[in-house]
Amino acid sequence: MQLRIILDTIFIVSVFIFPWWLSAMFGAALAFRFPKFFELVVGGLLIDLFYGASVAHFTYLFTIGAIGMLLLIEFIRTRLRIFQ
Amino acid sequence: MKMSFLRFNSLNRRSRTRIPSLVFAGAFAAIILIAVFIRTLESGVMSFGASVLKAETALKQTAATFEAALLADKQTLFEENKDLKKRLGEANAKLWSFTLLEKENRELKALLGRNMGDTDSETVLATVLASPPRSTYGTLVLDIGARHGITRGALVFLGGNLALGTISDVFNETAKVLLYSAAGREVNAMLGDAPFPVKARGRGSEFEINIPRGTDIKEGDLLRLPGIMPIIIGVVRAVEDEPTKSFVRVLAGLPANIYALETVLVRPHFITDTDETRAETQNESNKEAYP
């Protein structure tokens, strides 16, 4: 639990500091490591809220992408022997 | 020989079906919560994000100071190079402005005393906290906001008459700029000497314009906002003319490198009549008419 909180903090800070693809890769790795990693959706939402303009198209692209990625990773995770 | 298999009992099967349903339920609940509290969240996120980026900038400056102390000679050269590049960019920007201003000056003299209005209206200097590629939607995050008199729709300049975009969202201490070149954004503009307005479509770091064949457009021509004030938003970099097509594809680059922006100028009282502000004004007048 302690490790998850530390990595969560690093992940959230990385959303603001690193390019989106680096944060996405880090988030995906964490989603494989920890079950039900809803922080990934929070990360997507943070990107959308911080960088997205209200007048632009696809304002919640990253939130939707993060939900999709989380569902996919969760689907794969439950079928991998190493995570049983 | 001992073999290991996955345990496939009833408990495991139940947990398997439960996990996706839990994920779905969680995602659904999150979407509902986000939809309800989105505006409150956005303000908090902007404040937190700006603090993180300010801390990062301070850390970078400290690191640069240490580096300068350790590698004095290399650092001097590096700084000099950086400074010269910056000056070159500024000089180029001024040159483009002067070309346009000279032409306009001639036209105005011909019109005998036409007043251009107050071009040096109040200007606020802003530090760019985040710019592309870090910022994913073709936006800039500035360290100034409503407290500094910034309003939605205000023009953001690089310097002189080079405009980058407009303020799209204003918070207390921060503001977001939607670049004219943001992917999918369309801007009505004037191109070179073409006598008609064109629709410039943003492609991230450049504009794409389709104009009828036979229009005299060449590399170096300016893309500017329509109006009395000559506001440059791009420079023609390439003209793709295929004889089989009736339209010519023009690619216009930005007047500055948006990936290395440090500061910009915001003119809070200089609001252009862009599509967004026009739509917004229309919405507000509709609300007043039909409350």
From TrEMBL, chain A:
Could you list this entry's UniProt keywords, alphabetically sorted.
Membrane, Transmembrane, Transmembrane helix
Taxonomically, the superkingdom here is Bacteria
Q: Where are the transmembrane segments?
A: 7-29, 49-73
Q: What is the name of this protein?
A: Rod shape-determining protein MreD
Recorded source organism is Candidatus Lloydbacteria bacterium CG22_combo_CG10-13_8_21_14_all_47_15
Q: Source organism lineage?
A: Bacteria, Candidatus Lloydiibacteriota
From TrEMBL, chain B:
User: Which species is this UniProt entry from?
Assistant: Candidatus Lloydbacteria bacterium CG22_combo_CG10-13_8_21_14_all_47_15
One cellular component GO annotation, for this chain's record?
A: plasma membrane
Xref: InterPro entries? Cell/Rod_1, Cell/Rod_MreC_2, MreC, MreC_beta-barrel_core
Name of the molecule in the record: Cell shape-determining protein MreC
Disulfide bond as a keyword? Answer: no
Q: Which residues form the Rod shape-determining protein MreC beta-barrel core domain?
A: 128-266
Q: Which family does it belong to?
A: Belongs to the MreC family.
Among PANTHER family, the record links this protein to: CELL SHAPE-DETERMINING PROTEIN MREC
Biological process according to GO: regulation of cell shape
Query: What parts of the sequence cross the membrane?
Result: 21-38
Q: Which UniProt keywords apply?
A: Cell shape, Membrane, Transmembrane, Transmembrane helix
Gene3D superfamilies, alphabetized: Rod shape-determining protein MreC, domain 1, Rod shape-determining protein MreC, domain 2
Pfam families in UniProt: MreC (PF04085)
